[in-house]
């Protein structure tokens, strides 16, 4: 990986697996989702206004934008999961993350609303995934970007990775302060 790739993907890129995860892997992913809100809050609680407005890499989002992005992204993903369970391969609505990250509410140094959203979404999301059978985990939604179906077990893997991915962005930046 190039130095830029290491900054962009400090935990590595997500690797899609077509196979259902083992019970141990599913449990590990759920544990990450469960613990993430607390870990995120701990990482950002000591940051001042200037640090929250610092990008984690040149051309990247600020810490504040990353936190607000997590609230937006994980809210979308949670709702997509519910649609996948309750509908037959629904076509989900995409959104342009960079446009959302530039909105006033996504650049604010007041992280409390987004941290509350993340805490609530993750609590419900973990409960949701814990109750799904193996068959239900195979339910899918269709994402028009890439024209691909996403089984719920892949969504669980993606968002446990996504949580670690952005948490590490913040940790890498904190080391530079």
Summarize this entry quickly.
This protein has helices at 3-8, 23-45, 49-52, 63-86, 97-101, 112-130, 134-137, 152-175, and strands at residues 140-143, 148-151. By secondary structure, it is mostly helical.
* Order of strands across the main sheet: 1-2
Helix-and-strand structural type: mainly alpha
Sheet-strand content, in percent, reads under 5%
Query: In angstroms, what is the radius of gyration?
Result: 16 Å
Helix content: 55-70%
Largest sheet entry: 2 strands, antiparallel
Please give the count of helices.
8
Average pLDDT reading: 95
CATH secondary-structure class of the domain at 30-43 and 60-81 and 93-126 and 153-175:
Mainly Alpha
Structural key phrases:
Four Helix Bundle (Hemerythrin (Met), subunit A), two-stranded antiparallel ribbon, 8 helices, mainly alpha, 177 residues
Could you describe the 3D structure shown?
Helix 2 (23-45) runs parallel beside helix 8 (152-175) and helix 4 (63-86) runs antiparallel to helix 8 (152-175). The chain is globular. With 177 residues, it is mainly α. Strands 1-2 form a two-stranded antiparallel ribbon. It has a domain at 30-43 and 60-81 and 93-126 and 153-175: Four Helix Bundle (Hemerythrin (Met), subunit A) (Up-down Bundle), CATH 1.20.120.450. It has helices at 3-8, 23-45, 49-52, 63-86, 97-101, 112-130, 134-137, 152-175, and strands spanning 140-143, 148-151. The model has no long low-confidence stretch (mean pLDDT 95). The protein is 62% helix and 5% strand. The longest helix has 24 residues, at 63-86. A hairpin with a 4-residue loop joins strand 1 (140-143) and strand 2 (148-151).
């Amino acid at each position: 990986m190039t130095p830029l790739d290491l900054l962009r993907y400090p935990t590595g890129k997500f690797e899609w697996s077509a196979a259902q995860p083992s019970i141990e892997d599913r449990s590990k992913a759920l544990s990450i989702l469960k613990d993430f809100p607390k870990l995120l809050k701990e990482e950002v609680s000591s940051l001042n206004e200037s640090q929250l407005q610092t990008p984690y890499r040149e051309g990247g989002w600020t810490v504040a934008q990353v936190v607000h992005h997590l609230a937006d992204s994980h809210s979308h993903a949670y709702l997509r999961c519910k649609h996948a369970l309750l509908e037959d391969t629904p076509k989900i609505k995409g959104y342009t993350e960079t446009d959302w990250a530039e909105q006033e509410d996504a650049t604010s140094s007041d992280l409390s609303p987004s941290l509350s959203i993340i805490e609530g979404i993750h609590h419900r999301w973990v409960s949701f995934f814990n109750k799904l059978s193996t068959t239900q985990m195979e339910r899918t939604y269709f994402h028009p970007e890439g024209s691909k179906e996403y089984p719920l077990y892949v969504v669980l893997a993606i968002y446990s990775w996504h949580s670690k991915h952005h948490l590490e962005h913040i940790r890498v930046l904190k080391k530079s302060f």
